Amino acid sequence: MVANNNVAMENTLPRPDVREKVTGAARYTADQFPGNVIYARYIRFPFAQGKIASAKLDRARKVPGVLELELDTDTEYQYCGHRMGHVVAESSDAIYDAIAALNIKYDIEKGRNDPKKFYDGPPEPSADEAQQLSEIYDKADVVVESSYETQIQTHSSLETHCCVVDHKGDSADVWASTQAVSGYYGGMRGITGLKDSTLTIHSEFVGGGFGSKFGPGPEGRLAADSSKKYGRPCRAVLDRREEHLDTGNRPGSIQYMKIAATKDGKMLGGRVDCQSVVGWQPGRGGCRNPSLYEFGDIVRTESDIPLSAGLPAAFRAPGFPQGSFALESMMDELSAKLAIDPVEFRILNETSNRRKKQWTRGAELIGWKDRKPDGSQNGTIVTGYGCGGAQWFNVSGDCGVDCTIYRSGDVEVRVGIQDIGTGTSAVAVDTVCDHLGLTRDVVTGKVGNSDYPNGPASGGSTVTRVAVPALKDAAQNAMKALGEIAAKEWGVTMRDIAYKDGQFRSRGGESMSWREAAGLMSDEKLSVTGKHNRDFWGDGTSDGVQFAKVEVDRETGIVRAKKIVVVQACGKPVNRLTLENQYYGGVIQGVSYALLEDRRLDPQVGGMVNADFLGYKIAGSLDLPEIVADFDWNEDDTGARSVGEPVTIPTSGAIANAVANALGVRVRSLPITPQRVLEAIEKGGKS
Amino acid sequence: MKPFEYAIADNSSGVTEAIKRGYAIKASGIDVLDLLKERITKSDKYVSIEKIDGLRGIERDGGGVEIGPLTTLREIAESELLADAFPALAHAAAEAATPQIRARATAGGNLLQRPRCWYYRSNEYNCLKKGGDRCYAVDGDNTYHAIFGDGPCHIIHSSSLAPSLVAADAELEIEHRGESKTVKLGSFFEMPDRNIYNENSLRLGALVTAIRVPRLPKKSAWIEFREKASFDWPLAACAVAHTGGSWRVVLGMVAPIPWRSEAAEAILSGIDSITPEIAEQAADAAVADASPMSMNGYRVKLARAAVRRALLHADGKEFV
Lengths: 687, 320
Prior knowledge:
By secondary structure, chain A is α+β, with helices and mostly antiparallel strands. Helices cover 28% and strands 25% of the residues of chain A. In chain A, a hairpin with a 5-residue loop joins strand 24 and strand 25 (559-569). In chain A, helix 8 runs parallel beside helix 15. Chain A is flat and about 85 Å long. The termini of chain A are far apart. In chain B, helix 11 runs antiparallel to helix 12 (298-314). Chain B is built from 12 helices and 12 strands. By secondary structure, chain B is α+β, with helices and mostly antiparallel strands. Chain A binds chain B through residues 46-47, 93, 96, 100, 380-381, 553, 555-558, 560, 595-596, 600-605, 607, 609-610, 614-615, 617, 619-623, 673-675, 678-679, and chain B through 1-3, 39, 116, 118-119, 122, 124-125, 136, 139-141, 143, 225-233, 235, 298, 301-302, 305, 308, 320.
């Protein structure tokens, strides 16, 4: 007996919680105001580096509503935003008033804000490496040497890092803005000592998590400790400034590349040095350069440049967007020097057969034939085309699913998985609906609660991929459970019945619907579970390509992305709209990274000057190009592939290449601002 | 945000009373809200003037137009009268901010808004404008700061409406202590060496009661350039108007006040029709005396482009 395995999923239903989200009825962690709540916040060092010389806390402690205020006056502080202490109070205003009433004198040091001041170029190769390189360059017909820079990007989750804890002593409810319900549960268990169902994590709606929201973090600990101490629910919610300063970021980079190639377009090798611009101590850097193409024999070095700033955290495809900007720019610089078309050049050096086909498809969809030679257009507004590729690993994983069938035939599916925007409830409900040939009025989903079975973290683009096989397994078990009831009713064995399109049928020609079969249940409800099932697993990697079309205003330097094509392997789609959403979201974040976002530090005292959404610029609705989401999947795909991260990797490289094509000069630094475009035009260096 | 006392006046004597008792004025509160949340405002008492009659609307007034200070940006953007007779102003209003903000933000508030300088707006920097001893933009990140003027403060004036109104020789009617007087908008804004703590000559307790353009310009245009297409302050802008027989050129977002360029106007003296060559010359003249800071030289090119395009656009010529 086989379930209803639809081949084509034309599901264009909006996600089940769309109404709640769009009307504001959805309650996120930051929206939770339990009765009698108290507030907790950190006090943060305002400069790049230094110490507290003296501090008078009395006035601050006496502000009405303040329950406690602590400050660590011994530590050497290393960045603007560094936690120095905390305040717990009856209101958020009391906290700000208390912080304003602090009388602190600082010994300030200059700090490190400009990575270029600490960059000495790529390290000297060893004698052997130098020999190796010289042999490579000797064999080459062309050699291109360039350096590329990328900025620090802050995660900018719309819902800041926050936690609300109602600690009742022997149990606790925790509302968490997290991308890992089960990981957060583990962290909170460690903090509170509570376990099993005495501790519940509520994470039904999460306003963004791009890699920095796995565990409770300092704010989770602060909320839990304060709630326990005062016997009242406690909110620890970061404001936007703190969110930019101290919740992680994508490190910047200075990437030196010198690559050799033959005149028929094969790369031979060369030198790659990646220096990541990180926070106040080395670590958490890394650029995925080289990758994707057959670069040949590479002498590679890597190091970190620390700045007086908050530490990095994993950020959607960590290391890849940075590396991609540099290596895709280099690919175009090489192909230009070789006078080979950039798409052809990539195909010549490709490591993936799938991507070879994607290049051709993407080129067609963007209108690559309209691409003019670099810098050949007259007029003020010039158009350019560029491209870049992506790959993503598809890891294994497990997930638990609980499923209840009611005598009415209604089905409720429960998974403990968070929803950072993936559309977890759509994944849960639509997978079961598709597998059982049922509609959404029959199946509902509940997500984001640690009382439900554990699922994957939103990390590595694994939620849909890992949940789908377990959901199908649960659906299969549900079908078997009702199948047994139908078989019994007809006096036949399971081998004599089939299930398709919502109907059980016997060999003898009898049939009954899902609801009819459920109506025969002896109990009011029955429960089944699901777990990883190899039959439903999606195989393969997540190759992808992106093509960008841009317009550049040569008089002002302003770049507008006009069209972006994403051809991306996705496995079997579950819900078209949520899948498209991932493509769109990845591209939008890529456009924003390419053209706008930049964490800027004041050179004098080291604060972040643009720690809000006015100065830290994120692409808005009018900044968006037309985005063509081209799903690349096979008819025999049984499961989902990872999609969320590969779709944000190549955008900046594709845009940079398009700009260089339009102008005939290249910007080798992100973001590609009017300032940088005008400087490149003035310098006149050819691409 | 800071807690504050809030009163609502429904007539101007109510406002006067409130002002006597130390209340600051709030129209729609777009900027006041920011100042409260950023905790840079000194006021903890606000009186709303939104319910006062007669302060809202766009009316013909002889050969000119009178705009009430409570008129919203959206009303200005959608005004048929202005679209026809003063397109620079309507266009500037339409490009500002977001639809939600334009529905509430007022013309008066737009003219009187405080600067967006990130050192001014942040509590951590006790800058000159807040009573401190230095301008942090000088040795700091001045990418978005002034390219004209010699300091000591290097803010840019962020009003989208001001340059067009100055170009059209607009006036303000101001009521203070029961008396009404008229001030030319061109002299209303003040450079930092004259007034460091505010950007204009409005006295404490005074109320702008009307914005008047005595003579609608024959031609006008507004050009602005932004990094973001959605909700961003321009990098540079220019309003031009042909009024009283001559061209007036006013740059926006590049100086502590709307920056009228007499040098550009001199090039245009006696000229009625704008050719590409004249536009280039005027644009060059407009930025000849620019004094960019360490990180914002690129904005000189943008300012020049804004002047060039605004002139051609106003004269109905192709401008890109």
